[in-house]
Amino acid sequence: MLKVRIIPTLLWKNFGLVKGIGFDSWRRVGPVLPAIKVYNSRDVDELIFADITASQQGNAPDFDLVSDFSEECAVPLTVGGGITSLDHIASLLNAGADKIAINTAAYANPKLIEAATGHFGAQCVVGSIDVRKLDGGRYSCFSHSATVDTGRESVEWARELADRGVGEILLTSIDRDGTMLGYDVDIIERVARAVDIPVIASGGAGNYQHMIDAVLKAGASAVAAASMFHFTEQTPAGAKSAMQAAGIPVRRNFVSNIH
Q: In this predicted structure, what is the pLDDT of residue 25?
């Protein structure tokens, strides 16, 4: 097993960080830069920064904002929100992003994925999938920050994104988002079995055991969390210690003694 990554998620809305439940991100968390500086010292492997209103409002990514944040970020930074073209991707990478996450634009223009991976390399393109469980147990993919049902079945879409070249998949459960009741291990397992690229579990983490279950029971290669780190005393370093105790290989950084 490859070393499992711990990835805090930062959701940006208009002027600051937010978090809510089920993609209803109403609760203000605070400014971004202090959060990044804290995570720099807390044994995280990567950060995900997502502008959750850009696609809904038809806005391009804020390249200056990403540049400001990336200057303070000491770990790999994945940026998502409003990306619709190769020019957007190039500008984000030039602004300091290490990876970009594409969600909404991929449904309207799947060839953008192939063009992006062909031009910039699979290692910096993340296929972002937001899923909701419908009646009958079917998982459907949603776009525009979980407001539009695309009609695409999640496992099939994950396979298509993998076939088109993405380096990994960020899989978020809309139903579990912000609940801290645990990841949806069922859909994580289905997607992880269907593709041969890393799957990042997202949506629902509330404690270290949830992260362990996402890896050992469902096959996730990385775990992302927001509310768990924003609103509890649990830390990325603590998560790594718990995972290591469960036999899961993790990366230990020089600040691993900070809890």
A: 62
